[in-house]
DNA sequence: CTCCCGATAT
DNA sequence: ATATCAGGAG
């Protein structure tokens, strides 16, 4: 790890702490799984509004497994992509009930075999639930990792491999959590607040704002 | 590569 | 009007 990388991680730790916080409200692993499926191209704030009532109406995995498709579509409509998400959630819930005794699996292979669960969602579960060192590459991580000069890739999987080489393993999970906060507060996709940024002197972004 | 798609900020 | 939001599947 370079001195510069170490300094960036140190400042992220100092600014945002080292706790594994989660922006998607949930009480169980399967609730987090469904929340992450819902979060595709949708703000976590919106997902939390939806799951607030959703998890009371469907309070077990079995209820999601036996849900009426059209009704579930309406229940999650405001998160967007609701046809696909509803179909995937029902299929995913059925697989968990039938093949996994209602438990959420912990390996990348098992997780990504579930409907609606791709690499990003699987890594959120691995990190947040099982504390398995895993790097989540979402829209924030991709954008900010490029600005910080940790990668030049556009493909999320290539970004993930680049970050594995750059970041120490004990920061893999934390990096994603801190970067989401950073992306929400300072390093926006549009018009980042570079003048107020605590990483400004270390940043290699070409789209810096004055 | 394209499609899925509503809510919000700019 | 357009960009963006904790992406995934065909």
Gist?
With 210 residues, the chain is mainly α. Helices cover 56% and strands 0% of the residues.
Tell me what the structure shows:
The protein is elongated, with a radius of gyration of 18 Å. The protein folds into 2 domains: 3-19 and 136-202, Helix-hairpin-Helix base-excision DNA repair enzymes (C-terminal) (Endonuclease Iii, domain 2, Orthogonal Bundle); 29-128, Hypothetical protein, domain 2 (Endonuclease III, domain 1, Orthogonal Bundle), CATH 1.10.340. α2 packs antiparallel against α8 (119-128) and α5 (69-76) packs across α6. With 210 residues, it is mainly α. It contains 11 helices and no strands. The protein binds a DNA duplex (10 and 10 nucleotides) through α2, α3, α6, α8 and α9.
State the separation between the terminal residues, measured CA to CA: 30 Å
CATH superfamily of the largest domain: Hypothetical protein, domain 2
What is the fold named in CATH at topology level of the largest domain?
Endonuclease III, domain 1
Radius of gyration over alpha carbons?
18 Å
Write the layout of secondary structure elements.
Blueprint: H1 3-16, H2 29-38, H3 44-57, H4 61-65, H5 69-76, H6 82-99, H7 108-112, H8 119-128, H9 139-147, H10 156-166, H11 172-185
Helix pairs in contact: 1-11, 2-8, 5-6
The structure holds a DNA duplex (10 and 10 nucleotides).
Question: Main attributes?
Answer:
elongated, Endonuclease III, domain 1, DNA-binding, 210 residues, mainly alpha, 11 helices, Endonuclease Iii, domain 2, 2 domains
């Amino acid at each position: 790890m370079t001195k510069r990388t170490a300094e960036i991680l140190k400042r992220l730790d100092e600014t945002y702490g080292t706790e594994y916080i989660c922006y998607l409200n949930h009480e169980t692993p399967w609730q987090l799984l469904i929340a992450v499926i819902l979060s595709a191209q949708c703000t976590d704030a919106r997902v939390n509004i939806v799951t607030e009532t959703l998890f009371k109406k469907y309070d077990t995995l079995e209820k999601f497994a036996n849900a009426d498709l059209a009704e579930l579509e309406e229940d999650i409509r405001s998160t967007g992509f609701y046809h696909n998400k509803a179909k995937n959630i029902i299929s995913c819930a059925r697989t968990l009930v039938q093949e996994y005794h209602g438990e959420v699996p912990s390996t990348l292979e098992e997780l990504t075999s579930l409907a609606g669960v791709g690499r990003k969602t699987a890594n959120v579960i691995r990190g947040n639930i099982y504390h398995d060192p895993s790097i989540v590459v979402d829209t924030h991580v991709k954008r900010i990792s490029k600005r910080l000069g940790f990668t030049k890739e556009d493909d999320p999987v290539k970004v993930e491999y680049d970050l594995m080489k750059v970041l120490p393993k004990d920061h893999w999970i934390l990096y994603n959590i801190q970067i989401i906060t950073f992306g929400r507060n300072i390093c926006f996709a549009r018009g980042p607040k570079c003048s107020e940024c605590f990483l400004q002197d270390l940043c290699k972004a070409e789209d810096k704002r004055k």
